[in-house]
Amino acid sequence: xxxxxxxxxxxxxxxxxxxxxxxxxxxxxxxxxxxxxxxxxxxxxxxxxxxxxxxxxxxxxxxxxxxxxxxxxxxxxxxxxxxxxxxxxxxxxxxxxxxxxxxxxxxxxxxxxxxxxxxxxxxxxxxxxxxxxxxxxxxxxxxxxxxxxxxxxxxxxxxxxxxxxxxxxxxxxxxxxxxxxxxxxxxxxxxxxxxxxxxxxxxxxxxxxxxxxxxxxxxxxxxxxxxxxxxxxxxxxxxxxxxxxxxxxxxxxxxxxxxxxxxxxxxxxxxxxxxxxxxxxxxxxxxxxxxxxxxxxxxxxxxxxxxxxxxxxxxxxxxxxxxxxxxxxxxxxxxxxxxxxxxxxxxxxxxxxxxxxxxxxxxxxxxxxxxxxxxxxxxxxxxxxxxxxxxxxxxxxxxxxxxxxxxxxxxxxxxxxxxxxxxxxxxxxxxxxxxxxxxxxxxxxxxxxxxxxxxxxxxxxxxxxxxxxxxxxxxxxxxxxxxxxxxxxxxxxxxxxxxxxxxxxxxxxxxxxxxxxxxxxxxxxxxxxxxxxxxxxxxxxxxxxxxxxxxxxxxxxxxxxxxxxxxxxxxxxxxxxxxxxxxxxxxxxxxxxxxxxxxxxxxxxxxxxxxxxxxxxxxxxxxxxxxxxxxxxxxxxxxxxxxxxxxxxxxxxxxxxxxxxxxxxxxxxxxxxxxxxxxxxxxxxx
Length: 686
What we know:
Layout: E1 6-14, H1 18-28, E2 32-33, E3 44-45, H2 49-73, E4 87-89, H3 91-99, H4 101-135, E5 153-160, H5 166-179, H6 190-195, H7 198-201, E6 208-215, E7 220-227, H8 231-240, H9 254-280, H10 286-306, E8 310-311, E9 315-323, H11 327-337, E10 340-345, E11 354-355, H12 367-373, H13 384-399, H14 402-419, H15 423-446, H16 453-461, H17 479-507, H18 511-536, H19 542-561, H20 569-579, H21 582-592, H22 594-614, H23 621-658, E12 668-669, E13 680-682
Parallel strand pairs: 4-13, 11-12
Antiparallel strand pairs: 1-9, 1-10, 2-9, 3-8, 5-7, 6-7, 8-9
Helix pairs in contact: 2-4, 2-10, 4-9, 4-10, 5-8, 13-15, 13-22, 13-23, 14-15, 17-18, 17-21, 17-22, 18-19, 19-20, 22-23
């Protein structure tokens, strides 16, 4: 149960060596800086905000330049990139790359300048294209759009919100004229109008000349010319059918403005292409930008750490925590080239000590599952060594198809060998590697290889049925046995959780609590198991009697001890009696493990159904094609859904049934001050 023992470290150095101390601690990457507060008033915290802002600006410049370069040259992050390890650098390579940072920063600035030019050109391009769209319908017009006519004529240049031909537009204008009323002059009366001859009541048709410039379903652009005396009537007629003047009419033929817009568009396109070409020329130097990002991130980390360091006029104090196993190494590195005092001590009671787990390659992959719930609190043990075994076991049982397990193992092995992931990515892949191996084991025991693929293929396409028999039993034919196994494994899982609780209490000096809170329950369970065995083995009736009295003895111990925290005798008795009700909780927890049976059955049944559907086409070319398509799609969906189900329900069994019996958590993760480079790493010294 590997929770690494922590030591408190305090470093006192000359102020001139402060940056060297921080740099060395960052290189080691095993110290969490947590100096604390100064109560004497002799120390102060350094203000490095200005330098920190400069480095953050440089990093942002490099990040933007790198993103721009990747967009231009078409570098896209793939899903596999998250599993790719960092590039390893020797000390010499690191020094050379550091010396080239000034050139890299200059390159990043140039790329960003080109990006600004390119974005500006894109803005101009977008705006100009919008303007061009407004004037393109008028391209064939050979007079200015703002032309209003001559001394004797009125010219109307504009558009209608519908499609017209020359004839239909003329008819629409004439229709308005025929329906309009006779205008009354100032010297006319109603009587004179009534007495007027018929020729006065029917005004002459409006005489206009028109030309269609362009027409679409949505709009018709036209030029209408009339005599100056008919200006008002023509204007009213045009308004009645939706005529509008251009918003920004040209004082010259629109083709001139259209030509300028097209030239501007071409100029913008040329600018964009030129900027892209110049940016793409930096593609071979992309690695310099990546290193610059990492280097600036490292510098930012140093200045952030300096804000947690105490300075006096001549000295600097750095405090924090580190795992005990690194004490001698850190001490030797610090004292090698610096005038320095280093002190190590055990954490005091009440100090917020971080938690760091360290397990072997089999256990470490499930540490993130525990961390997602909570890290062990003070006095608790690491549950991962016990949990890991059950986690892999349950995952394989729920997926339970050997072929699916082989696919998982092959896929994970490929990533581990060729992508060389690090950190949490490597741990997650190892976790699924072990889950895949467990799936192969359970699949072979249950005889599931893509469900019943061998039986279906041999019977459908070869005329003779062949089957891969299970090494143990077929859960589809015997689901009751699978349920019993699931419940037994679940009960064992709960007993393991209780064992960890017993160990934790005993280790922390609460031996009486370990016996009373866990031991008596074990006695009850032992008695109940003997009673169950007596039913299963009728030839040993004595087991029932012994089991009954054993269970009664355990229950009596619980009644006597579980109310001990109550101050009154009645409270102690009632508390003890109430504790027996917890037996129902244990039974419900055990029943919760029936999900192992349910998911295990579902995987195999769906796989077999997929095979059956695929074989509907029979032994023909079309049938083979159908089978392949159904096989690929059906099993892909099945493995995806059921692997996800196994992961989710596996976590649930750990969080609720397992952790719920002993685990409180509340630990704070250990966050060492380190280089935290995303793309590169220093080669470790041997």
